[in-house]
Model the fold of this input.
Amino acid sequence: MAVADWYLSARERGNPWTRLDARHPGGRAWSEGNSVTPLVHGAAYFAALTERVAAMSAGDLLLFVDWRGDPDERLTGEAGSEVARLFADAAARGVDVRGLVWRSHWDRLAFSAAENRHLGEDIDAAGGECYLDMRVRLGGSHHQKFVVLRHPGRPELDIAFLGGIDLCHSRRDDADHAGDPQRQPMAAVYGPRPPWHDVQLALTGPVVGDVETVFRERWEDPQPLSRSPLRRVLDAARGDLPRRRPLPPQQPDPAPTGDLPVQLLRTDGRRLGG
Done:
């Protein structure tokens, strides 16, 4: 059976608001020549991410989106491996770090408003640029979780991590499922250190350009980052009005690294009033 029998064509997807399909020739709404490695459990993903980000240098590009981000989450369990420090250190080395984290509902409703704001503040202070993004339907949230690492002049190092694992507490678990020592508050039925089973994909090849395009479409969205007039007033009072710098020109897609076709599917909600 041909790939086209499994994947949606651009016509079948029927989404003219994204560039994902237009960037591929002949109505082909997927990329070919990719390698895909599943990273099962947060501990495996966090270790791979830490190694890759630590190797980045000035002029490289780091893009990430998250539903929840705890700045003090230790990605390898060691002091100094906190996610905010990893990204901030990269920015201090001259890596262009850009992030979009969901502008969460209040913590008092068991969400993550303070944590997400603090992660962005730490990255901003180091020279990166991270914003709280509420451009969703009323009452909705952004659940995308991915990181894109691009290396101009060294495209063989380009990689995207995409899946279900946030950069936050309770996610650094492994196959033993003893749980993350840095736990996120949950119902008592899950125990003092709730186990967490999830997966992130390490993607190389042309698909990296598709994942980057998803980030760019969100970054370049002209709508206000928050639909709330009150929040915009509070942001202004804190001197926190977003002034998103344009992203650098997108590099050509990386060369093929394998033989797998990959199609990205996502939901574009019809937002009334932004």
Q: What stands out?
A: Confidence is low (pLDDT under 50) at residues 105-112. The radius of gyration is 19 Å. Residues 33-242 form a domain with the Endonuclease; Chain A fold (CATH 3.30.870.10). The CA atoms of residues 24 and 30 lie 7 Å apart.
